[in-house]
Design a protein that fits this description.
InterPro entries: Acyl_CoA_acyltransferase, Bact_Acetyltransf, GNAT_dom. The chain is an alpha+beta fold. The protein is built from five helices and seven strands; from the N terminus they run βαααβββαβαββ. It has a seven-stranded mixed beta sheet with strand order 1-2-3-4-5-7-6, with helices on both faces.
Length: about 180
Amino acid sequence: MEAHPTMLTVRPARPGDAAPMARVNVRSWQETYRGLMPDAVLDDPDLPATRERFWTAALTEERFRANRVAVAERDDRLIGLAMAGPPLDEDATWVQQLYVLYVLVAEHGTGAGRALLDAVIDPAAPAALWVADPNPRAQAFYRKHGFTADGASRRESGVPSIRMVRATSARRSRPSWRSG
């Protein structure tokens, strides 16, 4: 694994981050979901613009106000993003749901994923997420952080997913935001 001597910064996302967030989102999908999502979706030339519109809305519209959105940067370059908020699942027994956590493959294993998870999900609160299945690396990451599959599954946009839940965690409390 390549060493990353420069400091990782995790901070709240800002509306001006929408374009680089879209680039990381699309690249992460292409790196992770090839074979799970249709190539026509992953290679659609309109996908970056579509994701940028989504991130602009997520960072500016009232309907997303209760969500926490964070980005991870290294060397002033966005390398990951995460978003969590109130649960949408009707059978939710948890108070937070992780909706997005993407880190570029080159940054896997550097602590960026954990830092993003801690930035958007309170480690002491019950939480849940949906993760692509199969996606053994992501599922192992979430198990390491106290999530377990609860048997629920679904298919969204053609991608099979399983739900993972965490009752609580004994991990340290969420770090305070650091400015970059």
